[in-house]
What we know:
Layout: E1 8-12, H1 24-38, E2 42-48, H2 54-58, E3 62-66, E4 75-80, E5 86-91, H3 93-96, H4 114-128, E6 142-146, H5 152-158, E7 166-171, E8 179-180, E9 203-204, E10 207-209, H6 210-217, E11 220-223, H7 226-231, H8 235-238, H9 242-247, E12 252-254, H10 284-295, E13 305-312, H11 318-330, E14 334-341, H12 343-355, E15 360-363, H13 368-377, E16 380-383, H14 393-399, E17 403-407, H15 410-415, E18 427-429, H16 434-448, H17 451-463, H18 469-479
Parallel strand pairs: 1-2, 1-6, 2-5, 6-7, 7-11, 11-12, 13-14, 13-16, 14-15, 16-17, 17-18
Antiparallel strand pairs: 3-4, 4-5, 8-10, 9-10
Amino acid sequence: MSAAAALKVLFVTPECAPWVKTGGLGDVSAALPAALAELGHDVRVLMPAYRSLAALAREGTQRVTLPADGVWPEAELVRVAQPGFSLWLLDCADLFGLAGGPYGDERGVDYASNAERFGFLSHVAARIASGATPWKDWQAEVLHANDWPTGLAAAYLRRMPPPRARSLFTIHNLAFQGNFPPDRQQVLDLPDAWMQVEGEGLLHWDRISMMKAALRHADVITTVSPTYAREIQEEALGFGMDGMLRARQADLHGILNGIDTRVWNPVSDPLIPARYGAGCLDDKAANKQALQVELGLAVSDHAPLFGIVSRLTDQKGIDLILDNLDWLLKQGAQLAVLGSGEPRYEKRLNVLAAELPSQVAVRTGFDEPLAHTIEAGADVFLMPSRFEPCGLNQMYSQAYGTLPVVRATGGLADSVRDASGPDGTGFVFQRDSAADLRETLMRVLRCYRQPALWRGLQQRAMAQRFGWAQSAERYVALYKGQARKA
Length: 486
Ligand code: ADP
Ligand code: GLC
């Protein structure tokens, strides 16, 4: 593409891998801007300079001061040198220098100042995307915001001086809405006209909703799979916002996430014990063995090894797995779990791991290398989500020849084909029920005992192309105002 056609895109996000990642948003916020840059676009990613990024911010190669303006504090934009897109950190120690994670303290409790913290991030994004830009030489043409922490950006942008960028908001998960008490109106600098449920209002029930702000005010709304785009317009998965999404149906697009094949590729992955590809699948076995050794599981080539890398929450259908676990272990299976979340799930899994250490291993906390080793070493990946906007692990699993078991929802339905068909790449079940999962697990075990059949499924899974190029093109079309439904 010629430089003249390059778009200037401000991509604002609360997390971006490898610097900050609590889930799939972190991966997408790195991979999509990189894919856009590869298409020739000029992308600036804006995220807060959290305390964990203090050293990175000190190495910044450029600084721009944003003066205080009566409502918002003084801050600095710091450019971090890195290839591809350009990364800018919003440095404001009072708001972002807190000890803990991006959203909460070390115990996982949300920060009391989250409304101000993410209101400020959104306000700065709107400032950059308008005639009030602090960069004289760079005027964003597109403001691309992601999930509730950046939900106010499109709303603030409407009140900024022209020229104003076109705004696009991506819903990564509608269940998290950033709803705050109405007494935050002043610190968020919200006009009275927005303090209502209807019209241009941001109130959801009696709370200020950052998600709703975006759904009301963004020019274009996207979500991360075509199926989820349909599901959120219905009551069951609309989390109270389905009516509004139906009303904006013409502006709502489902674009399937890709995966970053430079990071998630068994042929070149430096984080796995043994590299392999579709042509040398036998080498995958060394990863299984290494994983069993690392986790203290019995070393066995024959025991089907099931992997889980996940937030341990209701969304992910962990209870459906737990309801089947005693049975599955009696069939001789092994289970490797990496994840943390609800104490009741962690506890039950840890009890099983203590009782049957040769069959069940559980690691809590965030561990990127172990996540890669589980993807490479397991035979089967369990992801029976209750809902799943896109999901990345089922795609990583297919790339690694680790067959996913998924429920037909959201991006899982859009990226895995059931083994019963001629083009199967995994195992898909329909209903949110432990019995349906049980039937599917029985099918998995039957297939696993037929090596030629299993190998065929693995090869088809590995031949899938989940790269970002095509999806990035679809975002570009929307950036340019060329709406095209999938
Ligand atoms: P979600 O964003 O809903 O959690 P996704 O499937 O989109 O689900 O993305 C989850 C991402 O987070 C994947 O890259 C997965 O490997 C990673 N992940 C989840 N839990 C852990 C963990 N405990 N340690 C390392 N990586 C994890
Ligand atoms: C959210 C969703 C997940 C999706 C990710 C990246 O965290 O829960 O399904 O893959 O965002 O878009």
